[in-house]
Amino acid sequence: MAFDSLSSRLQGILKKIRGQAKITEKNIDDMLVEVRRALLEADVNYKVVQEFVEDVKNQAIGQKVIQSVSPSQMIVKIINDKLAELLGEGDNEIHFARTGVTSIMLVGLQGTGKTTSAGKLANMYKKEGKKVLLVAGDVYRPAAIDQLIQLGEQIGVQVYSDRSGTSPVEIAKKAYFKAQKENYNIVIIDTAGRLEIDETLMKELQDIETSIPLNEELLLVDALAGQNAVNVAKEFHTKVHLTGIIMSKLDSDARGGAALSIKKISGLPIKFAGVGEKIEDIETFHPDRMASRILGMGDVVSLVEKAQENLDQEKAVKATKKIMSGNFGIDDIVNLLHQIRRLGPLGKLITMLPGMPKINSDQVEQGEKNINIIEVISNSMTPKERKNPDIIKANRKIRIAKGAGRSVQDVNRVIKSYEMLRDNIKKMNPMMRNMIAAQAKKGGENK
Ligand code: GDP
């Protein structure tokens, strides 16, 4: 199965580091030497490996310590996240047309799995209740047309074909027109492959691109081709407007080097993975799930995620309690503002207090700007001034404004807001104060 050998190597390496009582920089370096070797042996691009190892190291060293999580668990999480990043976390969605026909064109070298994948996708979308039209655009190989017609019959999907010498561009146009007229949801166009990239093939694809609106142009690459597949993707992408990759034969590739390099090198996200020869052997590609499958430590990863969330929540609860006590400085406000976006309803409650910057949905941008201003001004204060803003008189204000690159008015405004918030909280009925503090705690527990 895909990534098998890399997976067992990485799991071995991480098991070793998890067995160590203490994690030092030396431990991390030793581990990274092994990670580096494992990735190179998995045929991951050299530059990609180099960057990966540096990223992991920087993050591992810069990582804040979370009490309930061990440093080795933290490292598992970092490696997991970085693997997901390599696999292209982000833009893996298929972009469907808002109305009317969605067209998907499959391109790639011969034998990479275009025709098979066209059938697999058609079958998948048909099962989702969509009306699908397959288009036989590889007119040079009669066998390819036969193969697609056969697939269409097998899955009960209509195939548009034309053996009368019509050009692939005309075929694509006619098929698209038919799809529009007959209310198809999705058109999947199979195109001709060559043994290598050549100008005629590229020209043909470019002509189709300008003849019909394409929602997706997916390049088929064979996982077994390793770095060759990556190079083909890079080159194709300079000639035609690809939107993503279908990586076939991931089931037969134990190394996974192509999958781990292709996003960084070609810029193209993998959108689907072919995982066998049967019609249902296609998967929507999920980098995060794939990463945790490779590491086989999903439990550790979710443990760390949970601890990180809890930590944020704890900080927020603490900051709220402190502010509600009426004894707080500007540093506590900045602290709380940092957490507010994660707080949801509680965040709203806090921002309703007079003196706090307002962040409702219409004013998010302005609210964020206010937070930034408060933050740079606070950063320009001494710790003493932050804790006790009452000591900030004229001279200090000028110094703070200069340091923050803001006006003295801005400094005044921040101090005024602080005073207003403090006065209002002090004036508040103690029961109300306790209630808000308790609400913060409850919010934390509900998470
Ligand atoms: P085309 O020339 O690009 O249209 O390639 P085909 O669709 O004809 O596929 C070439 C060969 O690869 C066929 O034997 C397919 O069964 C096989 N194939 C395609 N996709 C996969 C896959 O995901 N896994 C495996 N194991 N074989 C595949």
Q: What does this 3D model show about the protein?
A:
Helices cover 60% and strands 9% of the residues. It has helices at residues 4-18, 25-41, 46-62, 71-86, 114-127, 142-155, 168-181, 199-211, 227-239, 257-266, 287-295, 298-324, 330-343, 345-351, 364-379, 383-387, 394-404, 408-427, 430-446; strands spanning 102-107, 132-137, 158-160, 186-191, 216-222, 244-248, 270-274, 282-284. It has an eight-stranded mixed beta sheet with strand order 3-2-4-1-5-6-7-8, with helices on both faces. Bound molecules: guanosine-5'-diphosphate (GDP).
Number of strands: 8
SS-derived structural category: alpha/beta
The helix count comes to: 19
Lateral arrangement of strands in the main beta sheet? 3-2-4-1-5-6-7-8
Label the overall shape: elongated
Bound molecules: guanosine-5'-diphosphate
- Rg from C-alpha positions? 29 Å
Spell the H/E element sequence: HHHHEHEHEHEHEHEHEEHHHHHHHHH
What distance lies between the first and last C-alpha atoms, to the nearest angstrom? 37 Å
Q: Provide the residue-averaged pLDDT.
A: 87
Largest sheet: 8 strands, mixed
Q: Determine the strand fraction and express it as a percent band.
A: 5-15%
Fraction in helix: 55-70%
Low-confidence stretches: none
Subcellular location: Cytoplasm
Family: Belongs to the GTP-binding SRP family. SRP54 subfamily.
Organism: Candidatus Scatoplasma merdavium
Keywords: Cytoplasm, GTP-binding, Hydrolase, Nucleotide-binding, Ribonucleoprotein, RNA-binding, Signal recognition particle
